[in-house]
Amino acid sequence: MTNHATTPPAATDTPMIVMESVEKWYGGFKALTGINLSVRAGEKIVLCGPSGSGKSTLIRCINHLEAYEKGAIRVDGITLGDDSSTIDAVRREVGMVFQNFNLFPHLTVLQNCTLAPMRTLRQGRKEAEATARRLLDRVKILEQADKYPAQLSGGQQQRVAIARALCMGPKVMLFDEPTSALDPEMVKEVLDTMVALAEEGMTMICVTHEMGFARQVADRVIFMASGEIVEEAPPEVFFSKPSHARTKQFLGEILRGH
Amino acid sequence: MNYTLDFLPVIDGLPSLLAACLGTLGLALGGMILAIIIGVGGVMLRDSGIRQVRWLVIAFVELIRNTPFLVQIYFIYFALPLAGIRLDPTPTAIIALGINGGAYAIEIIRGGVQSIGKGQIEAGLALGLHKTQVFRLIVLKPALRAIYPSLTSQFILLTLTTSVASAIAAYELTSVAQRIESDSFRSFEVYGAVTLFYLVMSWLLMRIFGLIQSRYLSYPVK
């Protein structure tokens, strides 16, 4: 009776990312203090908090760009260990977009997108290029496919970076302040791309101070300070009735500029 | 000053001098290829994260950079046979040039690698590439581009250093010139001509390095 078909749980109930009591130190400085976080498949999380609060560190632990000292992280059922096999497996599921784009300057836009799929997923050039072109089209930048990163604007580069990450077919996308390095007039094109991605059901964790984006797409807004999750709530509650003094202070500071 | 110039020995010896130029270029090319292999490999080993390997690379670089090339080439030529390794002068010269140039190349290329932002490496790792793939596919080309002028001037120096290989009678321009000079006693004419030949070879190499740069290492940067 073990082979009977079981109904898979509804997609939104499956935890895609689980962090259990994750702690991280930089020398004597505790960067993350017992982080517990569960992100359902398809959920969109916005992480905010003052600089040095550990929000970037948190998402960088998820794909093991940062090692952590204590606790456990599971991504799509894979428990992240220190061995390269689980790290590889997790990185295959998790795409990341960086503040400074980090496109490879010696490769064209198309080559930026096909490099990893050809090397790590063993895709043929044709297949990888077809995928890349489809995703470059999706971020509305296909016409720049043969240009080099330095020939693009910041906003264009960041959209390419999003397409590059998507080419690996990730189940989760991590955004580390994706609009912080952009000129104001380019923020919108990147946010629009992220909104479109969110609407297609991608599981997303975004470190950002773009509160308009948080209101529009976030299922939960998480506020961090001093390496701890201080408060988490749906955006309508988070912005109108923050419960912690530090959250209120932070929102006061960040919303004053808007 | 009753010295009369007599270029006849040089003109008579021209075919062997020109052939010796090819010998010099052969030594230089072999040395450069070996140097770049040692240079890139040495940087990878140095950054491998294994402490003993790292110290070994550092020790190698320090040993080579702080001892004379003439001693190095003598050592390889005369000391290795004692260990049962017997090589002809030309392969010995190539190995010595490669080892010497490689030690300098390690230092130069390392500088280039350090100039590459951490973000580049993280982006590669986040895409699931391994450390060695990140180095080879993402870091290496921009790093070489950054230090290309230093590396090529080191390689010109390596080319000129081939003349030291005359000390073990490897087949190259200086040793052939020495023979013609000792037969004719026309030192000024012979070494004047040889100077010109070295100059032309250096210039030629610079042109080739320039072509390689525009073909393989150029891409737009901000």
TrEMBL record, chain A:
Listed CDD domains: ABC_HisP_GlnQ
Keyword ATP-binding listed: yes
InterPro entries per UniProt: AAA+_ATPase, ABC_ATPase_HisP-typ, ABC_transporter-like_ATP-bd, ABC_transporter-like_CS, MetN_ABC_transporter-like, P-loop_NTPase
GO MF term set: ABC-type amino acid transporter activity; ATP binding; ATP hydrolysis activity
Coiled coil: 118-145
Residue intervals of the ABC transporter domain: 17-251
The keyword Nucleotide-binding is assigned to this record: yes
Family matches, as SMART domains: AAA (SM00382)
Highest taxon, organism lineage: Bacteria
Keywords: ATP-binding, Coiled coil, Nucleotide-binding, Transport
Entry-linked Gene3D superfamilies: P-loop containing nucleotide triphosphate hydrolases
Protein family according to the UniProt entry: Belongs to the ABC transporter superfamily.
Protein name: Amino acid ABC transporter ATP-binding protein (PAAT family)
Organism of derivation: Bosea psychrotolerans
Automatic annotation (TrEMBL), chain B:
CDD domains documented for this protein: TM_PBP2 (cd06261)
Membrane topology, record value: Multi-pass membrane protein
Entry keyword set: Cell membrane, Membrane, Transmembrane, Transmembrane helix, Transport
GO biological process assignments: amino acid transport
Record-annotated membrane-spanning stretches: 17-43, 55-80, 146-170, 190-212
GO molecular function: transmembrane transporter activity
GO (cellular component) term, any one: ATP-binding cassette (ABC) transporter complex
Compartments, record wording: Cell inner membrane; Cell membrane
Residue ranges constituting the ABC transmembrane type-1 domain according to the UniProt record: 21-209
PANTHER family in the cross-refs: ABC TRANSPORTER PERMEASE PROTEIN, MEMBRANE COMPONENT OF AMINO ACID ABC TRANSPORTER
Family: Belongs to the binding-protein-dependent transport system permease family. HisMQ subfamily.
Name of the protein this chain belongs to: Amino acid ABC transporter membrane protein 1 (PAAT family)
Originating organism: Bosea psychrotolerans
